[in-house]
Amino acid sequence: MRKTVLITGASTGMGEAATFEYAARGWNVVATMRDTAKANPAFAGLGNVLVTRLDVTDAAVIEQAVKETVDRFGAIDALVGAAGYGQVGTVEEVSPDQLRDQFETNVVGLVQVIQAVLPHMRERGRGHIINIGSMGGHVSLPTMAVYCASKSAVQNLSEGLAKEVGPLGIHVTLVEPAGYNTSFGTNAKLPATSIPAYAPSYAAMAAFDQQAVRGDLGKSMAAVADITGIDEPPLHLAVATAGLEMVRGRFAELMDEYARWEPVTAGTD
């Protein structure tokens, strides 16, 4: 029997690429997005792909998409949470409403979809939840701190969730990408205000972005599809080695800093 995966954010980027990879492996794929008119036309030629509407900020629409999936295919074996966007701007420039919107989509929306799917997986005693995080969840970047903070939240939620649902037979994997040539940049939201004093931060981020080694989106989503549903999938899966190297350097810096200030720490016991 074919397994079924529900993918959020399937109109672009990782969600779109994942749709093709799961379909090529014989999965039933429910490719969801806010506007189904934006679905890749090639989806229509794939007999095992169902395109349906899902807005991660609308609980009623989420429930309807989950019900439609179960009614159509009988089960949800895996969930890929790829919906999200990037908020650009320094912490001072981003408005409170933009901050809330970023977390509403990237964090609250992710959790709402998980909450809608989990009762079904619990009843079956199996399932695999795959959350698309970011290496930015480990390494915060200038002009991207709000986005990185949302992905840090996704990291911690995924790690805690894995401990909660593991005894129920449900696996969790946090996919941690770095840079790709996708529509991420064009879909990013700009800050509410622009403060000239932060121009060097934007210049530094632009230089970093130009130097970044891009991962192969197809290969990355193929790797994700290949580990979905296996007996012992990873809790953390880095895709694109440039991001992994960046995080290794950050962890080394972090431990060096802790060690340097350990005498002060010891005095607080």
Features:
269 residues; alpha/beta; SDR_fam
Describe the structure.
It comes from Streptomyces mirabilis. Pfam families: adh_short. This is SDR family NAD(P)-dependent oxidoreductase. This protein has 269 residues and is an alpha/beta fold. Helices cover 48% and strands 14% of the residues. The protein has 9 helices and 7 strands. The chain has helices spanning 13-24, 59-73, 96-124, 145-165, 184-187, 199-211, 217-227, 241-260, 262-266, and strands at 4-8, 28-33, 49-53, 78-81, 127-132, 170-177, 236-239. Strand 4 (78-81), helix 3 and strand 5 (127-132) form a beta-alpha-beta unit. Helix 1 (13-24) packs across helix 7. It starts with a strand and ends with a helix.
Describe, in short, the structure shown:
Belongs to the short-chain dehydrogenases/reductases (SDR) family. With 269 residues, the chain is an alpha/beta fold. It has nine helices and seven strands, in the order E-H-E-E-H-E-H-E-H-E-H-H-H-E-H-H.
Strand and helix map with partners:
Blueprint: E1 4-8, H1 13-24, E2 28-33, E3 49-53, H2 59-73, E4 78-81, H3 96-124, E5 127-132, H4 145-165, E6 170-177, H5 184-187, H6 199-211, H7 217-227, E7 236-239, H8 241-260, H9 262-266
Helix pairs in contact: 1-7, 2-3, 3-4
Family: Belongs to the short-chain dehydrogenases/reductases (SDR) family.
InterPro entries: NAD(P)-bd_dom_sf, Sc_DH/Rdtase_CS, SDR_fam, SDR_oxidoreductase
Protein name: SDR family NAD(P)-dependent oxidoreductase
